[in-house]
Amino acid sequence: MELTWHGHSTWHVTVGDTDLLIDPFFDNPKTDLEPSDIETPDYVLLTHAHADHIGHAGEFSEATLVANPELATYAQEELGFEETVGGMGMNLGGTVECGDAYVTMCRADHTNGIDTDYEYSAGMPAGYVISDTKPTQVEDEKSTTFYHAGDTGLMTEMREVIGPYLEPDAAALPAGDHFTMGPWQAAIAADWLDVDHAFPMHYDTFPPIEIDTDDFVREVKATGSDAEAHILEGDETFDLSP
Question: Checking CA distances to 221, which of 60, 123, 128, 186 falls within 20 to 30 Å?
Answer without folding.
Answer: 128
